[in-house]
Design a protein that fits this description.
alpha+beta; Immunoglobulin-like; five-stranded antiparallel β-sheet; three-stranded antiparallel β-sheet; 8 strands
Length: about 170
């Protein structure tokens, strides 16, 4: 009889361990589900989740727009200001940004026709996507009588400065 009690006692221990394990797993599952459910029902969590989704969609839209704009050769794009005109007391200075032009002043042409100054240029860039050609032309009508013989062209860093004296 003693052995039968030990055998029954052993089965009680096994059943107790199984029940305790099941109860522990159930409580852990219940706690995880309850925590997740409460967090999902929290308005702050939902707002953060929506903001994150909106930012993600916005990034995807910008990437799509960039790809579409890049691939459409017929769509004009605004370039940064390459040419600026500055009037001083006795001269005009036409300042050209050389960075987009490959840093080479030889890519810039300056023509002076009476009171009209035209600055133009072109540069070819080859990269892994293919060949890109950028060109520009900008003209300025100036009121004063320009002295074309004394026009100077000087490079200072990334700027190409064309100085055109005028007579009043």
């Amino acid at each position: 009889m003693l052995e039968e009690e030990k055998h029954n006692h052993h089965w009680l221990k096994v059943i107790g361990v199984i029940l305790a394990t099941f109860l522990g797993a159930f409580l852990a599952f219940y706690f995880a589900v309850d925590l997740t459910f409460n967090r999902m029902m929290n308005p702050d969590y939902q707002i953060k989740k929506m903001e994150k989704m909106m930012k993600h969609q916005e990034k995807r839209m910008h990437k799509f727009e960039d790809r579409v704009m890049q691939d459409n050769p017929f769509e004009p794009r605004m370039a940064p200001m390459l040419v600026n005109l500055v009037k001083e007391s006795d001269e005009y200075k036409v300042i050209v940004d050389l960075k987009p032009l490959g840093g080479n002043e030889k890519n810039v042409n300056v023509k002076l026709n009476e009171n009209i100054v035209t600055v133009s240029g072109e540069v070819e860039k080859n990269d892994r996507h293919g060949e890109k050609i950028m060109n520009f032309s900008q003209s300025f009508y100036l009121d004063e009588k320009l002295n074309a013989d004394k026009m100077t062209k000087v490079r200072k860093g990334d700027k190409y400065i064309i100085t055109i004296p005028f007579e009043e």
